[in-house]
Amino acid sequence: MPFPPGVSGNPNGRPKTGESVAEYTRQFLEANNNEKRDKILTRAYDAAVDKEIEESDAERWARFLFNRAYGQPKEVIEGTIETTYAVTPRKKDQDE
Predict the structure, then answer these.
(1) I need a labelling partner for 79 at 20 to 30 A (CA). Which of 6, 12, 37, 87 fits?
(2) What pLDDT shows up at residue 95?
(3) Do the Cβ atoms of 71 and 56 come closer than 8 Å?
(4) What's the number of CA atoms in the CB half-sphere (13 Å) around residue 71?
(5) pLDDT attached to residue 93
(6) In a domain, 96, yes or no
(7) 91 within a domain of the structure (yes/no)
(8) How far apart are CA 26 and CA 21, in angstroms?
(9) Domain contains 64
(10) How many angstroms separate the CA atoms of 62 and 29, rounded?
(11) Is there a domain that residue 65 lies in?
């Protein structure tokens, strides 16, 4: 039997399944020593900007943690798209 208009079939919403990975990771990073977190960020930053430095496992894990906690950085992609449209005239009797 369908629900009447304006009445939700699930008024309480989706059940909570626990803490999200992002929230857990944010709490973990914020609870740990700031000096260690800053060291991780510095190593990851240095590897990102200096192409001479080979990324280590620690830096890959740092990127993994921060991407999970705060989301991957947004990338801007610029470009142009050229397209051609084909226009087909309608017959007069099709307009009605």
Answers:
(1) 87
(2) 53
(3) no
(4) 3
(5) 66
(6) no
(7) no
(8) 9
(9) yes
(10) 10
(11) yes
3-state secondary structure of 28: helix
- The domain total for the chain is 1
The neighbour count for residue 49, using CB atoms within 10 Å, is 8
Fill in the DSSP letter of residue 73. Answer: P
CA pair distance 2, 25, nearest whole angstrom:
41
Compute the average pLDDT of residues 1-26: 76
Q: pLDDT tens across 18-67, in order? A: 677 778 777 877 777 777 777 777 776 776 676 666 667 767 777 787 78
Tokens at residue 63, please?
Answer: 């990127």
Range of the domain at 65: 21-70
**Measured distance CA(47)–CA(60) in Å, rounded:** 10
In sequence order, the 6+-apart residues with CB closer than 8 A to the CB of 9 are: 3
User: 25 near 31, Cβ under 8 Å?
Assistant: no
> What CA–CA distance (Å, rounded) separates 73 from 4?
43
pTM, two decimals, is: 0.37
Output the pLDDT for position 96: 54
